[in-house]
Amino acid sequence: MSTAQSPCRFEEAERGVLVVSPRPELNDVQWADIEQIGDGILQRVQSQQRPRVVIDLLELNYMGSAMVALIVRVWKSVDERSGKMAVANRSDLVGEVLELAGLSKKWMMVESREEAISAIGGGIGSGSDQSVGGGMLMAVGAIVCAIVACIGLVAMMEDMMAKGPAVAMLCLGGLAGIAFGGLSVAGGSGIGRILGILGGAGSVIMLVVGVVALASQVDTPPPPPEQESPSLDEDLGPADELTPSDVPPALPDFPPVESAGTESGSGVVSEETISVETEEPAEESTTAEENNTESEPTPSAESSVE
After folding, report:
1. pTM for this structure?
2. Is residue 95 included in any domain, yes or no?
3. Are residues 89 and 146 in the same domain?
4. 143 and 212 share a domain?
5. What is the C-alpha R_g of the chain?
6. Residue 149 counted as domain residue
7. In what order do the strands lie in the sheet with 8-12?
8. How far is 20 from 64, CA to CA, in rounded Å?
9. What is the pLDDT of residues 113-128, one digit of tens each?
10. Domain housing 23
11. What is the SS3 assignment for the chain?
12. What's the pLDDT score for residue 25?
């Protein structure tokens, strides 16, 4: 059975939106066949990371319990994958069935297929563009924050600025880059999602490298202080510790120096003599006098010769 002849059409609209359109013939299909149709729809829904599904009920005037069960299965699968689902309906009877089942308050109900696609972010010029644009902005923010974190890391490792501001740039840029990257991946698509992944990954790398660098700086012991050469006072020690043997002997007291000067034609010539008085023994002086007396001739001897 082709898709056009199937009691439930399944197609993919713009921007990856999946559109499920049950037809009135589905109310006459056996329960087992409805289960089989539901399995095929669920496979397509689960193939997307965050599916966006539109249930188009515009062709229905009545809705049986089997069809309600099919739509509930699709809704649960979308909800498990954090996707979005909207229901387009104009029939009052179908709306009453959904209201009695308590589903009208849980689902996004609109009156046209285009409104349903726009409501879940699939229409051109609608909230989809805002979502894509927001995802791109988040991706750019992630890239910028990763660059800021890189600058902070380089400044910290190369001592280009004080360590405090550099670490602050690294931490704030890295954490903000991770946050923006996650939001970009969650709400963006295409290039925006890729840029968000790159920005978030770069921020994580900068943070890890920064933490490792800080840990290595903390573990490295500081260089030992330079030892100063001991001074003379430190070698000798305090004065009160000197012993008498350490004091050098005093020099003898010499008598005052007498100076005498004579004038000459060219100037004054001074002569200095140092006289040291010493006491000679009395015996030596007496011996000298006796020697002088013996050497002189006596007067009597001279007269006899004459």
Report:
1. 0.41
2. yes
3. no
4. yes
5. 58
6. yes
7. 8-12, 18-22, 52-56, 84-88, 108-110
8. 16
9. 888 888 887 654 444 4
10. 8-119
11. CCCCCCCEEEEECHHHCEEEEECHHHHHCCHHHHHHHHHHHHHHHHCCCCCEEEEECCCCCCCCHHHHHHHHHHHHHHHHCCCEEEEECCCHHHHHHHHHCCCCCCCEEECCHHHHHHHCCCCCCCHHHHHHHHHHHHHHHHHHHHHHHHHHHHHHHHCCCCHHHHHHHHHHHHHHHHHHHHHHHHHCCCHHHHHHHHHHHHHHHHHHHHHHHHHHHHHCCCCCCCCCCCCHHHHHCCHHHCCHHHCCCCCCCCCCCEEEEEECCCCEEEEEECCCCCCCCHHHHHHHHHHHHHHCCCHHHHHHHC
12. 86
What is residue 256's predicted lDDT score, i.e. its pLDDT?
59
Domain boundary among 163, 197, 219: 219
The residue whose two tokens read 């699709």 is 74
Q: Determine the angle formed by the axes of helices 127-158 and 191-219, rounding to 10 degrees.
A: 20
**Domain total for the chain?**
2
Q: Are residues 12 and 115 in the same domain?
A: yes
| Domain end marker among 66, 98, 119 | 119
Q: What phi and psi, each to the nearest 5 degrees, are found at residue 219? A: -75, -25
